[in-house]
Every structure is written in C-alpha cells, then in structure tokens.
C-alpha cells in the first residue's frame, strides 16, 4: 500500500513542476496564454498579464514545495489549500462570469485545483495531526 504522506508529497511536487512550466510560459511566451488559456478573450493577454500570472504561479509553486517538504506544518498546509481554492475560484470565474477562457483552457487547471483542494481538505486532520 502507498504511504499517504509520500503520495501527497509526490502529488505536490508534480503540481509544482507543472506550475513551473506555466511560470516559464507566462514570462517568456505570454502569447501561449492567449491560445492555450484565455482563448475567448486573447486580446486581454498582455506581456504584463503574463508576468503577473507567472508571479502568482511561482508563489503557488513555492507553497506546493513547502507543503510537500512538511505536510504536517498546519500553517503551510492551510495556505497551500487556500491557494488551490483561490486558483479554482479564479478559473471558474474566468470561465463562467468573465468568459475569458473556454472549457478547453480551464479544464486542466480546474482538475488539478479540484483534486488538490479536495485531497487537502479531506486530509487536513490526518496530515497536520490536528483534531
């Protein structure tokens, strides 16, 4: 059987790696955000937005790595959980309210954010040792 702590750590490192790809795209190829993410309103994507997106994503990458290093740290754990919830809310808002992206652009980050939010929420007591 897989160790649940190791499984969470591996998941968070994988997510951090995927987020690092988004950081590189945001800084060096913001036009890819036009075609791959914000495909319904590409004219709103500027180099500044790309860098801002990359900065936010880099911060969430650091949170994933910090939580992967020590998932028992409740403050880091909850902050990481909150970052996934914010990402999910952001992509849902952009999809349903602001209509800047299609389901194609939203599906991957929403799947990662949903899985992560659910996993971290359900595992809060287990991983942090709080009751």
Which labels suit this protein?
131 residues; mainly alpha; 6 helices; elongated
Helix and strand layout, with pairings?
Blueprint: H1 4-28, H2 30-36, H3 47-69, H4 74-96, H5 103-122, H6 124-128
Summarize this entry quickly:
This protein has 131 residues and is mostly helical.
Give, in order, the helices and strands: HHHHHH
Portion in helices? over 70%
Give the percentage of residues in beta strands. under 5%
The count of DSSP E runs of length 2 or more, i.e. the number of strands, is 0
Structural class based on helices, strands and sheet pairing: mainly alpha
| Ends apart, CA distance between termini | 25 Å
Average of pLDDT: 96
**Shape from CA axes?**
elongated
Can you offer a commentary on this structure?
There is one protein chain. By secondary structure, the chain is mainly α. It has six helices and no strands.
